[in-house]
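I am going through a labmate's work and have reached the protein record below. What it holds is a sequence and that sequence's fold in token form. Please read both lines and tell me whether the tokens look consistent with the sequence. Do not assume that whoever made the record got everything right. Thanks in advance; the entry in question is below.
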Amino acid sequence: MVFGFFSNTQRLISKYRYGDGRHPCSMLDLTVASMLTGLVSVGVGAPVDLVKIRLQMQTQPVLAENFNLAGNGSVPLRSMGIQSQSFYRGPLHCISTVLQNEGIQGLYRGAGAMILRDIPGYALYFIPYTLFCNWLNPDDNSSPPPCCIWLAGGLAGSISWVTATPSDVVKSRLQADAMHQRKYKGILHCIMQSYRTEGIHVFFRGATVNAIRGFPMCATMFLGYELSLQFFRSF
């Protein structure tokens, strides 16, 4: 959806500004197209991301490993036959539970932080990719070779994910904040609480992992997209 929306937005902008949908886009055109793509992607991405976060977070035990009984000290739960249980049985059960308990807005919890992540994030995704492709392949009359596409896509992915890490931390915390144990009232409250308790470094936690993950993931994605286009255009 992201690649399709980005490409078609570029064509619409070129047709509106230059009268030709195939006219090369300027840097401003690329910026507008990529930022609009980031905004639209949240409509589909936010609920999916929330379900993923909630399912991943439920690996934390619902009950504490030990608790105190009056007069008996610390008694292990296992010795009492009490097991920690998963709150959600799967993705569909998670969606239905969120809708039942929190309504449709519950599926879009953290969407504001996701917008703050994806609007600049996609601009720092598509623009570096375009710049790297032009730099690695100065010949405008030929398509970049696969190795250039792979390298440009990987570098763009690492740049995008590293710069998006602070807003991604806030988004993930808001989405993991279940209704029955809610800690954060909104984006600003989450930022302030996280900063007070854990310091500025908390917003860059996982940046290295994001950079390492972003390179092969985005390199493969761009390469697959470009080669697919070349294949279908050959008919």
Remarks:
- Confidence is low (pLDDT under 50) at residues 62-75, 77-84.
- Residues 133 and 139 are 10 Å apart (CA to CA).
